[in-house]
Amino acid sequence: MVYLKSCTHLYTILLAYSLFKILVLQDCEQSSRQVKCTHGQAAMVKICCIGSGYVGGPSMAVIALKCPAIEVAVVDVSRPRIDAWNSDRLPVLEPGLDAVVRACRGRNLSFSADVDRHVADADIVFVSVNTPTKARGLGAGRAADLAYWESAARVVAAASRSGKNKIVVEKSAVPVRTAEAMERMLLAHSGGGGATFQVLSNPEFFSEGTAVRDLLCPDRVLIGGRDTDAGRSAVRALRDVYAHWVPEDRIVTTSLCSAELSKLAANALLAQRVSSVNAISALCEATGADVSDVARAVGWDDRVGDGFLNAGVGFGGSSFQKDVLRLAYACECNGLPEAADYWRQVVAVNEYQKSRFVRRVVSSMFSTVAGKKVAVLGFAFKKGVGDTRESPAVDVCRGLLGDRAHVSVYDPAVSEKQIRRDTASPAAAKAQAHQQVLVARDAYEAAEGAHGLCVLTDWDEFRTLDYRRIFDGMQRPAFVFDGRGVVDVGKVREIGFVVYSVGKPLDPWLKGLPAVA
């Protein structure tokens, strides 16, 4: 409890930069000791991370903050991304991250495109590169594309000096037994007389939007390694880094395979809960039950808990679908077709929920949205981020555009360029697509003259909008389709809207209409 309270306080200070500077000075005084190295070096003073994306950048910045005696270098072959990390406009939008980077950059945190030099100098090398899903070939749409990972492994092998011990840490989400493949590759390159490597798995569990808080106050830090003298020594070395700020009982050690599988399993189980409550939401609409009441009643059961039981238009983000499909593919490759089918169904329900939402919009508006303006509030996959990867809003917009609607989008964190890129159709001419998609400066502009309004991201500002003003500027009848449980259904209905909210009892207007257009 003391740990959780101190974490909450620390995060609050992070968001106030002037107070945060005081915190950093105190932290530096308390943590000025060097980390003892148990992997054959006198002192563990240099860390290098290959990859400066959503995982590598924030996680290394927090290590630099909490371990001022350790030099942390984040490297990437993308010069524009490195330039962004060295600028006042970071490439990753995360509350508190700017303050962390400003406090450490130029002190013990650097961002560089000189990959080979920093890898060669490092005692610990984190590999945090993109592992997208394969677009073609064997396992397309399910298996991980490990091209970037393999390239990083070859860089580590080639840049490492002979006779120097090095710990290589998997930070990316990878298939089970990827660490074993890295061990074989590094061993092949060393040829028995080069550098000595120990490979660890240290998956990251933070959530986008709360990354800094999650990194400062993790539920657990998971380290997987070999059950050998050298493997245990490497695990202790990495444990010593995290021990600067993470309590010992929250640092969990496992085998390599268990650590790799734990990352996939964690995301798959969270996605499963979302799909489960969304499947229940469809039944609630059909029977007149309220999914919020059902979720609250179920969540009171200690065996179930109330996390991830908010029904909506579907899950998104870079990890959930990707990791569920990789888990299914792993089951398939290991001769477990029934288990693979089970996990694939989690994704199938998510696709069904998005499709069901689009069908409800179309059927409610007299079975056609052709030529009608539909306002879309929210384009990121969740509040607090500008990330649109696998965002349900993208699929909903594409569905509406496919039915020839004119879509007007507003999101406080997503750029017009990104919205247009995500909604572009290869089949539509550029001029036509530009006319069909408008990007608004605020919610009121987006809704002006619209027939319907879809809420697709749970931004807090959408809860406090002047819906009377929005209603006055819309066509009649005016529809609200709430895909995130944001609006107060009773109040909005009193204004005059026809309201559909996922999992809620249907508006009287909708009860006589088919659910499918």
Automatic annotation (TrEMBL):
<dbReference type="GO" id="GO:0003979">
    <property type="term" value="F:UDP-glucose 6-dehydrogenase activity"/>
</dbReference>
<feature type="binding site">
    <location>
        <position position="81"/>
    </location>
    <ligand>
        <name>NAD(+)</name>
    </ligand>
</feature>
<feature type="binding site">
    <location>
        <begin position="51"/>
        <end position="56"/>
    </location>
    <ligand>
        <name>NAD(+)</name>
    </ligand>
</feature>
<dbReference type="InterPro" id="IPR008927">
    <property type="entry name" value="6-PGluconate_DH-like_C_sf"/>
</dbReference>
<feature type="binding site">
    <location>
        <begin position="129"/>
        <end position="133"/>
    </location>
    <ligand>
        <name>NAD(+)</name>
    </ligand>
</feature>
<feature type="signal peptide">
    <location>
        <begin position="1"/>
        <end position="26"/>
    </location>
</feature>
<dbReference type="InterPro" id="IPR017476">
    <property type="entry name" value="UDP-Glc/GDP-Man"/>
</dbReference>
<dbReference type="GO" id="GO:0006024">
    <property type="term" value="P:glycosaminoglycan biosynthetic process"/>
</dbReference>
<dbReference type="InterPro" id="IPR001732">
    <property type="entry name" value="UDP-Glc/GDP-Man_DH_N"/>
</dbReference>
<keyword id="KW-0732">Signal</keyword>
<dbReference type="Pfam" id="PF00984">
    <property type="entry name" value="UDPG_MGDP_dh"/>
</dbReference>
<dbReference type="GO" id="GO:0051287">
    <property type="term" value="F:NAD binding"/>
</dbReference>
<dbReference type="InterPro" id="IPR036291">
    <property type="entry name" value="NAD(P)-bd_dom_sf"/>
</dbReference>
<comment type="function">
    <text>Involved in the biosynthesis of UDP-glucuronic acid (UDP-GlcA), providing nucleotide sugars for cell-wall polymers.</text>
</comment>
<dbReference type="InterPro" id="IPR014027">
    <property type="entry name" value="UDP-Glc/GDP-Man_DH_C"/>
</dbReference>
<comment type="similarity">
    <text>Belongs to the UDP-glucose/GDP-mannose dehydrogenase family.</text>
</comment>
<comment type="pathway">
    <text>Nucleotide-sugar biosynthesis; UDP-alpha-D-glucuronate biosynthesis; UDP-alpha-D-glucuronate from UDP-alpha-D-glucose: step 1/1.</text>
</comment>
<feature type="binding site">
    <location>
        <position position="76"/>
    </location>
    <ligand>
        <name>NAD(+)</name>
    </ligand>
</feature>
<protein>
    <recommendedName>
        <fullName>UDP-glucose 6-dehydrogenase</fullName>
        <ecNumber>1.1.1.22</ecNumber>
    </recommendedName>
</protein>
<dbReference type="GO" id="GO:0006065">
    <property type="term" value="P:UDP-glucuronate biosynthetic process"/>
</dbReference>
<feature type="domain" description="UDP-glucose/GDP-mannose dehydrogenase C-terminal">
    <location>
        <begin position="375"/>
        <end position="489"/>
    </location>
</feature>
<dbReference type="InterPro" id="IPR014026">
    <property type="entry name" value="UDP-Glc/GDP-Man_DH_dimer"/>
</dbReference>
<keyword id="KW-0560">Oxidoreductase</keyword>
<dbReference type="InterPro" id="IPR036220">
    <property type="entry name" value="UDP-Glc/GDP-Man_DH_C_sf"/>
</dbReference>
<feature type="binding site">
    <location>
        <position position="208"/>
    </location>
    <ligand>
        <name>NAD(+)</name>
    </ligand>
</feature>
<dbReference type="InterPro" id="IPR028356">
    <property type="entry name" value="UDPglc_DH_euk"/>
</dbReference>
<dbReference type="Pfam" id="PF03720">
    <property type="entry name" value="UDPG_MGDP_dh_C"/>
</dbReference>
<feature type="binding site">
    <location>
        <position position="389"/>
    </location>
    <ligand>
        <name>NAD(+)</name>
    </ligand>
</feature>
<dbReference type="Pfam" id="PF03721">
    <property type="entry name" value="UDPG_MGDP_dh_N"/>
</dbReference>
<keyword id="KW-0520">NAD</keyword>
<dbReference type="GO" id="GO:0005634">
    <property type="term" value="C:nucleus"/>
</dbReference>
